[in-house]
Amino acid sequence: MNFKNFPMVPRVVFGRGSFDQLEEIITSKRTSTSSPFIFLVDDVFKGSPLEKRIPLYHNDKVIFINSDVEPKTSQVDALRDSIKEEFDALPSGVIGIGGGTLMDLAKAVAIMLNNPGSSEDYQGWDLLKNPALYHVGIPTISGTGAEVSRTTVLTGPEKKLGINSDHTPFDQVVLDPDLCTGVPLNQWFYTGMDCYIHCIESLTGTYLNAFSQSYGEKSLDLCNEVFFNGSLSEDESRDKLMMASWHGGMSIAYSQVGVAHAMSYGLSYLLGTRHGVGNCIVFDHLEEFYPEGVKQFKKMVDKYEVEIPKGLCANLTDDDFDTMISVSMGMVPLWENALGKDWKQVITPQKLRGMYEKM
Ligand code: NAD
Ligand code: ZN
């Protein structure tokens, strides 16, 4: 038996308003006055008060990124190339400010500034030649767990797959729940449910162990407080969802996700469906696999009157279905976690097609 030697984020700050400590945190990490910090920032913050609080010195640069589409290998390579072209010296570090999309982009750009070739060469497990540059994650929406994870999920020409490595996790995370003020309700729900689904998939999976369980149970408790317990103030709710996301990410780090993620990868690959909403679309139909979790999920959908898109697969061709099915069935560890080693006796292409047709 070979046990995972899992790298954790070595430094984390938590607290409302803690963003203002960023300057102090990164100052000692500056390698020279000609080596800038690159801030990759979700463009929802363009012109916002947060933009003015970004601590810029010397030739530091802010690059605004639109997160309507999930990160691509070509986008990462282009960002790396433009940064290398603009500056003579290698940057001091990369700082991502935004949701899972910006967390993943910051990790990937920090990796690619110090590794040759294209980011698609490194999609997979432990393929990096060199460590990443110093990188900091500052989430502004809670749920994905990307702030703690050992991966950065990228869509390449051939596959949607993470760069999984010991160099991927952030060197520093700043958890300031105030930054999540103003997230639209639907998006809050979709990304928050990503965390809830991480918990259900981890806690009911065959890979479960005491490490994952301890984080997963805490995360699920926090999700229940946030999404069910009407007595939290908005501040408390943001605090707790941020920690739920962290614990949910830690839980799956040492186990695995399951059916919802395996199927939503198929939707995302073919139709570009975003991670949070895609998981919700799928999870809504998974009573057979997660009866209790889905029952509670439906209650939460009703409570917040959130719309879960329907009819996505109504006009797909046979080839489209085959593509989704093959992407989904390729996620072997996810199925194995959900259903055990004999998962193929339950999950056949026909079975998956029938399930996708309902979505
Ligand atoms: P996101 O980063 O895609 O952002 C969703 C929307 O919320 C965007 O429109 C963004 O502009 C908006 N937003 C973010 N913060 C806001 C704020 N404070 N106020 C107003 N609007 C705000 O959403 P996400 O669900 O956090 O991330 C999804 C991405 O994360 C996917 O690309 C997925 O592949 C990735 N992911 C990565 C991991 C990992 O471990 N690396 C895990 C899960 C998901
Ligand atoms: Zn997820």
Shape: globular
User: What does the largest sheet look like?
Assistant: 6 strands, parallel
Give the ordered list of helices and strands: EHEHEHEHEEEEEHHHHHHHHH
> In CATH, what is the homologous superfamily of the largest domain?
Dehydroquinate synthase-like - alpha domain
Number of domains: 2
CATH class of the largest domain: Mainly Alpha
Query: Any low-confidence stretches, pLDDT <50, length ≥5?
Result: none
Topology:
Layout: E1 12-14, H1 22-27, E2 37-42, H2 49-53, E3 61-65, H3 73-86, E4 93-98, H4 100-112, E5 124-125, E6 135-139, E7 153-155, E8 160-164, E9 172-175, H5 185-203, H6 210-227, H7 234-253, H8 259-271, H9 275-283, H10 291-304, H11 318-329, H12 332-339, H13 349-357
Parallel strand pairs: 1-9, 2-3, 2-4, 4-6, 5-8, 6-9
Antiparallel strand pairs: 7-8
Helix pairs in contact: 3-4, 5-6, 5-7, 5-9, 5-10, 6-7, 8-9, 8-11, 11-13
The chain binds nicotinamide-adenine-dinucleotide and zinc ion (ZN).
Nicotinamide-adenine-dinucleotide binds near residues 70, 102, 141, 152 and 183.
